[in-house]
Fold:
Amino acid sequence: GRFLPTQRTDGVSTSDLITRIVRDYDKYLRRNLERGMSPKELNISFLKEQELNLQKHVSDIREQIKKNIQGTREDLVGELEDLKAELRHTKLFWEDRRQDFVRGFSSMFGSQVNKIFGRKRREITNGSADHNSPSKRVRKADSKASLTSAGESE
Structure:
């Protein structure tokens, strides 16, 4: 190599320039190979050329994966928004219909339900719910029957 003296520029470090050149050398070679320069013109070996081609393919695959992930993410976000809107619509639909269902139920079974709940309300307000409730009456009848049958067996 020949030495070429250059004028120094303030604020630019020579060692920083050399570090950048060495660090980015593979990028430089890859870029020039893509532009059509031959490996012989760049003074690189066959193995170095293959290594650079492999690095290019790996970076291309990484870019494709990033694009696919981003596209998939955007698709999922869109589908979730559609699902949220559909759920809101369904919720509003059933909230609007609930009064119709209650009215229909009460028109079909209202008198029977009122009788059951009205009787329970009267029993609770009279204080006789504990003593005269159907479940207490059944239990009292069962206990009397078991006492009677026990007395007969002795």
Summary: DSSP finds five helices and no strands in the chain. The radius of gyration is 44 Å. The chain has a mean pLDDT of 79.
